[in-house]
Write a structure and sequence with these properties.
There is one protein chain. This protein has 426 residues and is α+β, with helices and mostly antiparallel strands. The protein is 53% helix and 19% strand. Strands 2-1-5-4-3 form a five-stranded antiparallel sheet, sandwiched between helices. A five-stranded mixed sheet has the order 7-9-10-12-11. The N terminus is likely disordered.
Length: 426
């Protein structure tokens, strides 16, 4: 049986977050793909409309040139009188311009290189251009062949105002798409936060009920054990006093007394942990409290410590409970280092929070699951009860803060991190 298996409620927020993210990502990609496709279709239709107009006008001009002759410029001018036509020209193979929307350019010549490139391109080419007036347009070049196989060149330049307007209106869909995606993702994040908070609240409530039940059972058992233990310790001490000095009986009774004291200490910690706490939170200056905790938990070892606690920094907490947490943290750090080592205690403000760090230079922690270190009765020390860190987590969270234990970065040892509300924050 795997005792380290986490409850299903632990995984639900992560599963929900991943599923919601995947769903939103798929939905967003579908919307973006659809919008892009629609914009591309509108752009294609707009260009296709210009192309169809150019082909229709070129066919009409070709018929006029074939049936009525090249001198019938009035009919050609009528064909190209549409407002969409920026200008048009018809040129012969030698480059001589037979017709131009600007009559002043009729009978002028195109450059030979341009004519050669035009004819070699085939029957139809097109491209976007900018007119000399700065207006965008679309240029269509056609090659039309007479019955004697001689080519005529037709150039149509169409204004793209209507087509560009259509494309711009289609591209505005991206604004709507962006707004829609923003609303969808915002709603998704709000839903995820609400649902996750609800799951965590429910899990915390269930955990609190479980701890309350365990605490009641523990308190009852601890009281019974303490009552029986008092009698055992009393008789053992009485017999030890009566026993002869240096005898085996006195040594054995001394071990019994030491064992009862050990059990008595464990019972005291059990009662402390199982007690339903009431918090008297208020602003507490941190530096004097930590100095007192050092004197109580590590007398005579102040030389091995480095303190970096700014004067005036304070936290909002219950002084008695915070003193007990700090004393236990300092004692654990000293035990981890043994007789040699350096302990560093620091604190700094970060907005509405104060972060406290107790760093030792011991071997560090090898536990893969750091949360298990705060489980009641779990300990890595041979003479530990496994209730110190559990109690610290209980009261620190009860005071509105958080606590964690991890290995130091860039060196041996562990660091106990405690975060509490800033006593100077309003």
């Amino acid at each position: 049986m795997n005792l380290r298996m986490k409850p299903i409620n632990f995984y639900i927020p992560g599963i929900l977050r991943f599923s919601l993210f995947l769903l939103l990502l798929i939905f967003s990609m579908a919307i973006i793909f659809t919008t892009n496709k629609n914009v591309q279709i509108v752009r294609t239709l707009a260009i296709q409309g210009l192309t169809d107009t150019a082909v229709g006008l070129s066919s009409a001009a070709d018929n006029v040139l074939r049936l009525m002759g090249e001198n019938n410029t009035s009919d050609i001018r009528t064909i190209f009188s549409d407002r969409i036509v920026a200008y048009a020209l018809v040129a012969q193979e030698d480059g001589n311009i037979l017709f131009h929307s600007n009559p002043a350019l009729i009978n002028t010549k195109l450059q030979a290189q341009e004519v050669e490139k035009w004819i070699s391109a085939g029957t139809f080419t097109s491209r976007r251009i900018i007119l000399g007036t700065g207006v965008p347009a679309y240029e269509f070049n056609f090659v039309m062949y007479r019955p004697d196989k001689s080519p005529d060149m037709l150039r149509l330049v169409l204004q793209t105002t209507a087509a560009d307007k259509m494309i711009r209106q289609a591209e505005r869909m991206w604004w709507i798409t962006g707004l829609l995606l923003g609303l969808i993702w915002t709603a998704g994040i709000i839903f995820e936060r609400f649902f996750t908070h609800r799951i965590k609240t429910q899990a915390a409530r269930e955990n609190q009920k479980r701890l309350t039940l365990i605490g009641q059972m523990t308190a009852t058992l601890a009281h019974e054990i303490r009552n029986a233990l008092g009698s055992v310790k009393g008789y053992a001490q009485w017999l030890e006093e009566k026993a002869a000095e240096g005898g085996a009986e006195k040594e054995a009774l001394a071990m019994v007394v030491a064992g009862t004291l050990r059990i008595e200490s464990l019972v005291h910690e059990l009662l402390l942990f199982s007690k339903e706490e009431a918090y008297n939170n208020g602003p507490i200056e941190l530096a004097p409290l930590i100095t007192e905790a050092i004197a109580a938990s590590a007398p005579g070892r102040s030389a091995d410590m480095e303190l970096n606690i700014p004067i005036g920094i304070s936290v909002k907490a219950d002084r008695e409970k915070l003193f007990r947490v700090m004393s236990n943290g300092i004692r654990n750090a000293m035990d981890a280092m043994g007789e040699a080592g350096n302990l560093r205690i620091s604190a700094h403000e970060g907005g509405r929070w104060v972060n406290i760090y107790i760093e030792d230079t011991g071997e560090g922690i090898c536990e893969k699951d750091p949360d298990r270190l705060f489980t009641p009765f779990y300990t890595t020390k041979t003479n530990g009860t496994g209730l110190g860190l559990a109690y610290a987590k209980k009261v620190v969270e009860g005071m509105g803060g958080s606590i964690k234990l991890s290995n130091r970065i860039g060196g041996a040892g562990a660091v106990l991190s405690i975060q509490l509300p800033n006593g100077r924050a309003k």
